[in-house]
Amino acid sequence: MHTIANLGLLFIGAALINNILLTRFIALCSFIGISNDWQTSVGMSLSVIFVMMMASTATWVVWNYLLLPLGVGEFLYIPAFILIIAALVQFVEMYLRKYSPMLYRAMGIYLPLITTNCAVLAAATEVAKPGFFKMAIEYNYTFGEGLVYTLGVAAGYGFALLCFAAMRERLDIAPVPESLKGNPMSFITAGLLSLAYVGLAGWFGL
Amino acid sequence: MSEPLSKRIVGPAPHIHAKDSCSGIMLWVLGALAPAALWAVVSMGAPAIITLVACIASALAAEAAWNAIARKPQTLMDGSALLTGLLLAMCMPPRTPWWISVAGGLVAIVLGKMVFGGLGWNLFNPALVGRAFVTLSWAGVISAQTNFGWFRALSLPAAGEYDAISGATRLALAAADRAASGAYGYDLAAQYQPLLFRNLEGSLGEVSAALLILGGLVLIARGIIDWRIPVGYIGTMGLLSWAFGSDPIFNVLAGGVMLGAFFMATDYVTSPMNKNARLVFGVGCGVFNVVGRFFGSMPEVTTYAILFMNGLAPLVDRLFRPRTFGWVKGE
Predict the structure, then answer these.
(1) For A111-119, what is the mean pLDDT?
(2) Residues B178, B139 share a domain
(3) What is the pTM of this model?
(4) What's the complex ipTM?
(5) Residues spanned by the domain of B185
(6) Residues of chain A contacting B298 with CB distance shorter than 8 Å
(7) CB-based burial, B266-291: b 16+ in 10 Å, e otherwise
């Protein structure tokens, strides 16, 4: 029971309270770039959940069974993780194209985008090196905890992205002053949205 | 606006003229809020007047200046800037330095409303944007303001050993008592009467919950605000705080819930359009508010609860979008 409650808190902490987009300001490029279209945002959210889970799994294994035993983790983890994530995404893309054209068509265009998405690297790093983001909850990611955390980050990413995409549909038709149209207005709105997330700070001591 | 007449589509009869207008509705809301504001001025005196004037004047000036600079038609007469200024003042502590109130009014109007294209296009409640901005920017200045002298009457029995609670609101006292698992014996039921009629600890809008409820009920009866949002909000607050083992009536009356539920969450522009979606919106505000109070780091989170749900409103509206008849899905 205690573990389940802890996992729940870990998920909420990763998804909402420490939302990767609106309180950490990581992966803003995709947040601003993708959110101008609802369908694209839905596809991107699902793809990010899928890729993040795989990337964290792979980097967790590499970190615990390769980098740490060899004693090179502390200074090699960033290049190693970037390489793993990029290679993994490329392989998935090739695999999907050959074996599941339907899924490839739905997800394919987002996969190259995700390769360079810093949120994936951030989640993978946090799972490998707990404390990277200084969450106040006690944890020392086992494999399961790492997956729950990653799922939380990805779900929080998707939630914020969909929220923002729905808002931008309204912004698109608003008579915004000419000089603020487009990205400036997106940043102002994202700033106000992140103002609302301030109210979540410190919930459950997270 | 200036398209040729032939392009206009005229729907079938009957055409019924509604007398409601934008400024008319604003006047009703202002009127409903006026008793609570006046009573706050009577009870709190000069500091309340300074806050009210600073907020309202800066909101009006910001709107006028923006329209003048942007060469847009002047929109002061729709009353929305006046209402934003009043709402902002209602959620400020009376001893807030006047320049903070002025900054709040400016941010509320410019960042909260005008950059989006003016009234009807803002995604967040302007007054709450202003309040969140100033409370985050000058948190130290605002909380360092001394409160009124008569706070002693409501202090905890054990107050002697604490110097820091002198300016605390009833919610903060209740939270401190809860954190000490009831060691101070803070009597929640004894707070109903001051919270309803004359509570001087907190912002202008916390002086009298009874007058706010009265104003809110008038607005509901007039059909100006939808009952679903306040009922969802306040009902959820009561039920959940009861479930968390606290006094539901105290939790509903204390803090900014009444002001937020009746006057802020019900803002047409920033709440969902669909009726069921509005209920969801109200419940969401309530859940955020209760959980923030009981498990968060701040004693009160009404501002953020409503801002958060404002941000969610377009998404909620999207999920509740009614089916279009006469079309095959995917065509």
Answers:
(1) 78
(2) no
(3) 0.89
(4) 0.90
(5) 172-318
(6) 199, 201-202
(7) bbebbbbebeebbbbbbbbbbbbbbb
